[in-house]
Amino acid sequence: MTQPNAANPPTISVVMSVFNGEAYLADAIQSVLDQTYTNFEFILINDGSSDGSLAIIEDFAGRDPRIRVIDQANTGLTVALRTGCEAARGKYIARMDADDFSMPERLEKQVYLLESDPDLVAATGDVEHFFDDGTISHVSRLRLNPKLLRLYICFGNRIGGHGQVMFRRDAYEKAGGYDTTFRMAQDYDLWARLLRLGDFGIVREIIYRFRTGHDSISKRSKSEQASHSLRTCRREYARVTGQQITEEIALGLRYFWWNMPGTATNQRDTSAVSKTMDRAVTAFFQQNPQLAHEEYEVRRNIAARWWWRAKGVPPSHLDYHAIFAANIAKWGTSALIAKATARG
User: Fold this and answer.
1) Does residue 147 contact residue 199 with C-beta atoms inside 8 Å?
2) In the chain, N or C terminus with fewer CB closer than 10 Å?
3) What is the mean pLDDT of residues 229-244?
């Protein structure tokens, strides 16, 4: 294994911030050290932990020279990540969270994707969500044309997750890096700004395992996370459409794309959210005529999800998808949504 040094800089800088993460930290670190792709440095920021996290980090660092340790007073995740990224020497920066697990070929597959297409600014992939007992919750997959992410990002964080993404360091710097005014949902904000510079590639297989159901940062701070997410949603919606939306409408979009129950929004807000999405879809495809062939699928997807919400039918129910697919061209998305809502 060739070790990165001043004369041989690493291709990848893996950046992980740790705050009182001793329960799962060793497994997370080991999953990075066990990667099939070995030309990386591993920057571990101990962000003022008061548990045994630093001892675990230092033990690993003493055994693997690829690990670089930054020990600092607590600053919060966003500032800590910015510190780690500023210290990075690699061509690419791969994120990693202290309670998750990277599959052995994760770095290799993401580097291959980015090296094969210089127009890509980042690479994500499928994420398996699991509980502490090993039970699988679900798998998050992005089964869409990546060029549509610029549309979907104005509805919510369609990329999802944080730790599974690898991005070009020069693109990260050009985008302005992590915005420290975002204490939460800093990933959503960064992904949106990176998408202005290029596309995200998608490794269409599980490359990352996300631990769920425990006391994570996002679980402890849901209301603050939502507030920061709405801020990005409203900003990106205005970029696509040239029009502003209220926080209430942005929250309605969040409920829609986060699979919240239909009772989470009233009928008036449901109608407003419908018109909001329709406006964005129309504007996006007017601006991107080369993607016109994708508009039908986008509208079908939105309409089918509305039907699911109104009728309680899973989005994967192909019969209802077929019903909407057969009628969108005739009535348009907004009319179909109105019909589904009225029937519900």
Assistant:
1) yes
2) N
3) 97
